[in-house]
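Reply to dn_fold:

You asked what the input looked like. This is it:
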Amino acid sequence: MPGELSRDEKILLLRLARQGLRAAVKGEPLATPPAGLLTPGVERLGCCFVTLSEQGELRGCIGGLTAVQPLWLDAMQRAGHAALRDYRFSPVQPDELPNIDIEVSVLTPPQPLAYDTPDDLQSKLRPNVDGVVLRHGLQRATFLPQVWHTVPDPALFLSLLCEKLGDKPDAWRRVHLEVEVYQVEEFSEPGFRAELGLDQPAQR
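and this is what came back:
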C-alpha cells in the first residue's frame, strides 16, 4: 500500500481533515468539496484513523476498520470525531485549533492471521509494519502500527491490546483470540507544512 496515494492526494486529505476538524469543533455543517477537487484515489471506498496531537501530546484518535464510504469523507468525519468523541479526552475547543496537528493513517483491509500457540502469534507479528486487531466474542480492539514505536515488544504489545479490549493482559496467552493484521499509509501535517500553509499557526 505505501505509495498508493500521490503527494497531492495526501495533501488534499490533510486539508479536508482540517476542514472536518474545524467544522466539528465550531459546530458548523460539513461542507462537501467541489467535485473537480477530488481524485479517484480519494473517491474510492476507504477507511482511516485520524490522530490529533497538541504540542506533541495525543489529543484524540478515532478511526474505522471497514471501508463503507469515500476516503475523503472518512477523513473529514474521523477528524471531527477524534476532536469530539474520543472518550479519553475532553472535546477540543476552538482556541486549541491552531496548536493541533493532524495525522491520517489510511488502512489496508484487515486480514485474518492464523496461529497455533501464543509463541507462534508473537513470531508472526511484524513490529512497525502490522496494525493488529484482537477479537474476543463481541469485543474488538486495535493498535495502529505506530504503537510499535513506543511498545516494541510483541508480548507487551499484545498484553496492552488485551487491556484495551477490556480483558486481562494475559488473555492472549490463555484464550485463542481472533487476530487480524493490516498496514497503513501514514502522513501528517508537519510533513507538508509549506504546502498546507502551516508555517504560521494563525493560518490554520
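The helical segments are 7-26, 40-43, 71-84, 118-124, 154-165, 171-174, 193-196.
Hope that clears it up.
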